[in-house]
Amino acid sequence: MPNQRLRDALLRNTLGFDEVAKATGVDPKTVERWITQDRTPYPRHRHAIAAMVRETETYLWPDAVAPEKKKEINESEVVQVYAHRHAVPQDIWGHLIEQSKISISILVYAGMFLVDNPALIRTLRQKAEDGVKIRLLLGDPASREVARRSEEEGIGKSTLGAKIRNALAVYKPLAEVSGVEIRVHGTTLYNSIYRFDDEMLVNTHVHGFMAAHAPVLHLRRLSGGDLFETYAESFQGVWDGAKPPKW
């Protein structure tokens, strides 16, 4: 079977066989076999290709890393564990946004604590103008999933939907900014995900608790790791099924 992930990664980055061959020091025919015959490159070649396409080795070659090594890498991807979201230092959020050079991706239901920052919209606009791709993914305020989550948090059936509408109103000025895309989703959200290039804050959702009182994982992406990639793929799955909001 061909390696479709590697093929797609090269296409997205407009990289041909010759360019990859030159970067890895192999023949272009070898690069072709890595794709068409799903041959696994040597570790040094995997490192080089993963860096070129900004993907992890685990994503491009899921079976290439030994289980023992993968376990070690996964543990190293965890930078910090916070017992509650409100325990994450405020300057961490600002630092992660400011240092982002490629993309910012946010998956929440409402995430009202973010829009409490009066400088957020201005900062995101500037980031987009600087070439950072920004994806904002909020809950669909009319969905059953949002109403159910609102009841589970003990704040009433319609409260969370109202919070989302307020958040959307704050984000609306960004809707026409090039590089910013806003969508809404109707999924059962198990985690809120905040990705800033190769770092991520994952706010787990706990039944009966508001998100601010649930744990947060601070992750940093490592080549060969699974943990960061798992949440990145989860975000993409929700994004693909989401739709533009009704302003």
Automatic annotation (TrEMBL):
Residues 122-244 form the DUF5919 domain. InterPro entries: DUF5919, Lambda_DNA-bd_dom_sf. It holds the Pfam family DUF5919. GO terms for molecular function: DNA binding. It comes from the Bacteria. This is XRE family transcriptional regulator. The lineage of its organism: Bacteria, Bacillati, Actinomycetota, Actinomycetes, Pseudonocardiales.
